[in-house]
Design a protein that fits this description.
Elements: H1 4-10, E1 16-18, E2 26-39, E3 49-62, E4 68-70, E5 74-77, E6 87-100, E7 103-117, E8 124-128, E9 134-136, E10 141-142, E11 154-169, E12 173-174
Antiparallel strand pairs: 1-2, 2-3, 3-12, 4-11, 5-11, 6-7, 6-11, 7-8, 7-10, 8-9
Length: about 180
């Protein structure tokens, strides 16, 4: 059955990224999909027409300008109407305080990097080894809530401690 790959593409744990051909700069996340209907245009035809009912996350994510790298204090501007939930990776050593807008995120015992993932499907704090292995380390972070990029706002970013760089994947999104 050649169409098996199509059904397996949506049979994944968690949301599945999907890019609509008419909007190549945006990614949607499919949260569930079901075959609604199968039809064969002619009785002897090998062609089949599948209707798939997909349920997507409410937001579409803008894919351009994906990564912002800071090696000194700076700011991130959210040019969109919706709040963004970024992935922030701090590279450094020791105890670090990351100031994100008016929020202070305390990271202790950093050895290499720590990522703070604000995505509502994820919301984790982890380190990434050179081989790509991720290790959860929520106990190393103290934060009141996961950081966001407010709509149409400038978010100042600074830090105290031994930091070589901060990488922000903003995850701009729209309704």
């Amino acid at each position: 059955m050649r169409e098996g790959w199509l059904f397996n593409a949506f049979n994944q744990p968690g949301p599945v990224p999907f890019r609509y051909y008419a909007e190549p700069a945006y990614t949607y996340y499919i949260v569930s999909a079901d075959v609604a209907e199968q039809d064969r245009p002619a009785r002897m035809s090998q062609t089949r027409v599948w209707t798939i009912k997909a349920e997507a996350d409410a937001y579409k994510y803008f894919e351009r300008d994906k990564i912002i790298e800071l090696d000194a204090a700076g700011k991130v501007d959210n040019p969109f109407l919706s709040m963004a939930k970024p992935l922030i990776t701090v590279y450094g050593q020791g105890d670090i305080t990351l100031n994100w807008g008016d929020q202070a995120i305390k990271l202790t015992g950093v050895t290499g990097n720590v990522s703070v993932d604000s995505d509502e499907f994820q919301q984790d704090i982890y380190t990434t080894a050179a081989d790509g292995t991720q290790t959860l380390c929520a106990e190393r972070a103290t934060l009141s809530e996961f950081p966001v990029l407010a709509a149409y706002q400038h978010t100042p970013i600074s830090w105290v401690g031994n930091v070589s760089k901060v990488i922000v994947e903003p995850r701009w999104r729209l309704l």
